[in-house]
Write a structure and sequence with these properties.
By secondary structure, the chain is mainly α. Helix content is 63%, strand content 0%.
C-alpha cells in the first residue's frame, strides 16, 4: 500500500480543450458565453476532481485556447468560420488574418506567461506569430 502515499505523482487530468473550443466556436454561435461553456463542461465532464468544484470559466477558456495554440491549423479553421458567420462587423472592417493573429498573441499571454518555456517554444515553432 505504499503507492497511495504519492498521489501527486499521478498526472493531473487535462481538461478537454478541443471539446470546449468546438462547443464555444461551433455549437454555441452568437449565444455563447464563457459562463455558459463552463456550465456545459460541468454537465458533460463533471467537476474538477481535485477541488470537487465546477471548473471556472477562466479555466475553460485557458483549456480551450491551450488546445487551440497546440492545434493552430484546425483551431484557425474553426475560428475563421465563427468570425465569418457571427462577427460580420469585424470581418467586413478587418483582415481575418489580423484578427486571428491578434487573438493568438493575446491567448498565448493568458495561457503561458511571457518568457516561460511553452511561450518561447510557441514562437520558436511559429515565428510568423511574432508581433510585427
Amino acid at each position: 500500500g505504499y503507492i497511495m502515499a504519492f498521489p501527486k505523482m499521478i498526472k493531473r487530468k487535462e481538461m478537454e480543450g478541443e471539446a470546449l473550443f468546438r462547443q464555444y466556436y461551433v455549437r454555441m454561435g452568437t449565444g455563447g458565453s464563457y459562463r455558459k461553456v463552463a456550465a456545459w463542461y460541468e454537465r458533460e465532464f463533471g467537476k474538477n476532481p481535485y477541488t470537487g468544484r465546477p471548473y471556472t470559466h477562466e479555466a475553460c477558456v485557458q483549456a480551450m485556447w491551450r488546445w487551440g495554440l497546440e492545434n493552430l491549423e484546425e483551431a484557425k479553421r474553426i475560428y475563421m468560420m465563427y468570425v465569418v458567420q457571427f462577427e460580420t462587423d469585424d470581418s467586413e472592417t478587418f483582415d481575418l488574418e489580423v484578427i486571428w493573429k491578434y487573438n493568438v498573441q493575446r491567448r498565448l499571454l493568458s495561457c503561458y506567461k511571457e518568457g516561460t518555456r511553452k511561450y518561447r517554444e510557441f514562437y520558436r515553432d511559429n515565428p510568423e506569430y511574432l508581433v510585427d
